[in-house]
Amino acid sequence: MTPGDRAADGFADGEFRAARRPAPSTGQGTEATRRPAAAGSPAATPAETAGVAAAPSVPMVHLTIDGRPAAVPKGTTVWHAAQQLGIEIPVFCYHDRMPPIGACRMCFVEVEKMPKLATACTLEAGEDMVVRTSTDRVKQGQRGILEFLLVNHPLDCPICDKGGECPLQDNTLKFGPGASRFVETKRTYGKHVRMGPVLVLDRERCILCWRCVRFGEIIAGDDALKGFERGYHSQIATPFMEPVESKFIGNTIGICPVGALTSETYRFRSRPWDNHHARSVCPHCGCGCAATLDIRGNDLTRMRAREHPEINDIWLCDKGFFGYEFPGSADRLRTPLVRDGGRLRDATWDEALDLIGAALQAAAPEQIGVIGGASGTNEDAYLLTRLFRGVLGANSIDYRADTAFPQPAARAPWGLGQPISDVERADVIVLLGCDLTEEYPIVWLRVKKAVDGGAGLLIANPWTLEIARWARTAFTYRRGADAAVLAALIGESAPEDASAASGVEAAVLRDAAALLSGAKRPLVLAGRTALEQPEAAAVLARLAALRSSRPDATVGVLRGRGNAGGAQMVGVLPDTLAGYRPLDDASARARVEAVWGRSVPAAPGRTVRDMLAAAREGDLRLLYVVGADPATSYPAAGAWQAARARLGLLVVHEALLTQTAAEADVVLPTLTYSETAGTVGNLEGRVQRREQAVLGPGEARSDSAIFTALAARLHDPFAFSSWEDVSAEIAQLIPGWAEDARIAPPPITAPDDTAATRTAVPAWTAVRGAAGTTAGLALLTGVKLFDRTATSLRCPGTRALAGEAFVALHPEDAAHLAIADGDLCEVRSGRGTVRLAARIWPGLHPGHAYVPLGFEAAPVATLLDEREAAFVSVRAIAPATRQGR
Amino acid sequence: MPDLILTKHLGPDRASIDVYLATGGYQAAATALRQLTPDKVTELVEQSGLRGRGGAGFPTGRKWKLTPKREGETRYLVVNADEAEPGTFKDRTLLEGDPHAILEGALITAYANGVHHAYVYLRGEFFLGYERLSRALGEAYARGYFGANILGTGFDLELTIHRGAGAYICGEETALLESLEGRRAFPRQKPPYYPAVRGLYERPTVLNNAETMAHVPHVIAMGPEAYKAAGPPILYSVSGHVVRPGVKELPIGTPLRAIIFEHSGGLRPGRTLKAVYPGGSSSAILLPEHIDVPADFDSLQKIGTMLGSSAIIVMDDTTCIPALVARAVEFYRDESCGKCTPCREGTVWLSQIFERILAGDGRMEDLDLLDDVARNMTGTCFCLLGESVPPTLRASLKYFRDEYVHHIETGACDLAPAPLAVGAGEGRA
Description:
The structure holds 2 protein chains of 2 kinds. Chain A is of the alpha/beta class. Chain A is built from 29 helices and 36 strands. Chain A has 5 domains: 132 residues, Ubiquitin-like (UB roll), CATH 3.10.20.30; 135 residues, Alpha-Beta Plaits (2-Layer Sandwich), CATH 3.30.70; 225 residues, Rossmann fold (3-Layer(aba) Sandwich); 139 residues, Dimethylsulfoxide Reductase, domain 2 (3-Layer(aba) Sandwich); 112 residues, Barwin-like endoglucanases (Beta Barrel), CATH 2.40.40. Chain B has a 5-stranded mixed sheet. Chain B is α/β, with parallel strands linked by helices. Chain B is globular, with a radius of gyration of 22 Å. Chain B is built from 18 helices and 9 strands. Classes of the chains: A alpha/beta, B alpha/beta. Chains A and B meet through helix 5 of A and helix 13, helix 14 and helix 15 of B.
């Protein structure tokens, strides 16, 4: 391990990152941003705490450091000024994403006319300041600090994960004393405390730099780790050593300057210098966080954030940090499978492809449907359209496998029309039906920064979000009232009207509307909860109205997982071509036809819901599923099952035997995010390159390879020899297509169907029957970051983080139903029944039942209906048996 | 001896507002609120030469002037009654013996600074002080000296008593503010922002010591010239090997010799003076040859120590100096907040070395090691807590090296263990 390795890998250490950044940075000498109550107070701006270059209007100050002149914007710290000159000043506690704290005392410098050594990280550069960074006094001071840090450090470097990439090691080598004068007994603690399933704390190694504590206070806002005890007994912990509660704790491992915080999934797995690195992109939520995969042999040892200023900065959520290992699962599909006598058996690629090729050739284009395409690369998705739309003339392709709403789906593009980093610049942020930390955690970090900078956060959701304490206004409303609430927020209807429909007090709605109308740069983020429901068209109409009436407003639709953004970009949609161009645009079709040399059918294809309906009618015979699991994720299990029963052939591309794959006639084993190279998109339309990190198992192939093989079998071979070739062809169709370009999704437009866009107030009231019964609690479903899907369960870290499925009830409803926390309940809708433990949750709006998505033990899709809202009855069938939680 | 000013009426019944009013209580406040502008009050306090009694001796009037008075901006007054410096018990004496004096001073200070919410951060172990201060505050509220429209002047002031939870660091003014805001008591970085500019809840904050508050009514009542002519007065907390320890109200600058031998009854019979802390355990110890120095801020600073909290700890010839310093180091080790490296790690290391020396396992090289570790803590700590350790330690190595050597060479102490009254007078409620 050399310093160069570390500088190159984007590890989250301030000193190395800043060294690569040429622009002068300001390290504002205030800790204002860590105060949640600082609304309206003179807090540092996001730019200040981000350490980015100050605005050009800021006056410059001139100083000399080690005899070299420097000019920096006023407000810059001496540490950053030295950095700008390439002069290294060692730090432990300072991290350039947080304000300085001045605790470790490592960054001493000598300043003329100052009697004492000064800490460069907290000292603001002054005009004519004369700074020296390596005088004997400075060296003595730094040696003294390192000696203090080392006297009680265990020096167990040979078995420490951090050894080799450890700032304490590196700084000791460069600045430390050569020998120890310590003959006393070292401070000892019980070793490696497990702070929950993924974080391991070694208090002996800890040098109490406070970075992790401050990360939770300043960056994540979850206060996950805190300092306990005092003085030489000080230690990092959680109250009563409870498991740490965070969605971002992996970052503390990254910024820990010693081996005090380590990852349960990486411990003792590799020496840093044995890892090689691959540029990657997190495959999970749709944000597409830039990441680095570390690999030892063919083993994925860890995933870490890779700095991307506009997406994830230097952070990852824990789904990414601990959810990287499923490619190594022993359950991976290794050969094609073909149904034979009712069972799936191993087959050769030739047999499987021949079978599929013949079926595709035999089917009419309108009898073919394709679901998925959002789990591979952009090139995979593009070849999907090239094969089905170009070679076969089938337009029924749709990546939105887990959605039934809105219908019609057109004009409702998913995504954010701006870089994720621009979220920080909003002055009012509205979260409408968007459980941000569960669905798109990394976006929350930007929202948090905006809030710290004084932005108002407005949360409207059917249940209370965990980030509600950061909101200026947060309220819950009744299912289906999203459009009514939004209409009141944008001033389209009177708060009193929306109040009746939503169950929110008019005064609250009025204050919220005033907050939004007073904004200069409002950002409205509508999520799955607001849009995956029969009333979605009305919500879209309001969002479109807001966009057209408020040119200063940005509207984002936060939906879609994995590479949904890329699938949308390249046109894995029944009515859209590459570059978001409408299929009914003749010139767009002509352009595609020119590139492909094939005709493109003009009639739009079917959405997922319509494909399933057509299958049930016998009109769609062949369904081709690419890296999706509609059998569990389509929000109406009954609709899927009825469709599946009448399909002539179900083909599934999968890496693991999901429910859909288990029901397939042909299963083709595919490669995962770590095993293919190419580009992927994200919810802001960014094109990022991903490298192959490891080899796939057995005979698994990439989607691209499979589509290419099928094209050849259909006597229309593709002439691509690499993903770069495919990408080059995409560039012919999408202007501006390039690595790191952002092909922003088009804005929402009002649905054509005006009838559907009325703020139809859903006609229901929570019906309570006689005591102990309900005639109908409105069913809400929501995403959980830590779920129990096929991939989550095959990563030891995320599997351990996932809780059990539950049905949440408001205390009033639970009391009425005589249900206690933990009771096993039967949840019944008109469509089906599931059994779940009850969780009493005051954060839920009364009259509702909430069941999380993504838990195999809670197939919530069996309760749902693809055309109308679901209502459930809940009754206790067995008392709680588990001890505690 | 001039008339007592601050301690004239000390007594167990002084929490009663009637008792306080009977000796002219709240008349200074009435004068200030009814007849003087806030700026005039500040001016009088500045003219009086009143300097903060918390330890740093910053001129009080100037501190008030440094607090920006922007229209419409909330300002706070925080009274530091977290008295915990070893050997210091003057604030406790006032809190228990004349609590209204502190409250009246806070009222006048709040008026002078346009403050409408004041806090008293009270040391948690001051049980009796809390009882009496609370009672006094309750009665003062009931008589209209606190709350809305005080004395019909239109001036409003709420005062909240906040009890600490047993941390010396909370006496450090910025750590106090963190604690008051509900956070772990870590001192804040300053510069660039001092509490006067950005203090409690990031608002301009006047932070004054409890004794300082008690002076303010007298400045107003006597006028700055008469107050100055009366000393000005200061409370010395005298403890240790003297016949009559206690709080001594004397004109500032009374020589240590007079404080010890005239006002505190001198040493026990047959004993000789060995060393003196002039300003609490954070000040460097002095030798008998130094005690003619006037005990004031400037004179003591000139000879390398400080007046600090004016706590004079007297040690006679029964005192084992290495044991004394070891005890002081232990105190700072236990009270270090843990924020910065040199204080957190240096105090415990020093303490371990002392333990070893006192247990008879000392090595000659430990003398240099002690000095060097102390040197590495000097000027390197985040706040003054850690910086308090080296002065006496290094002074003791210089003045009493032979005692250390004796411990190391013989592994024993020739002096009878003499319990030293460090912090004498504390903790008894």
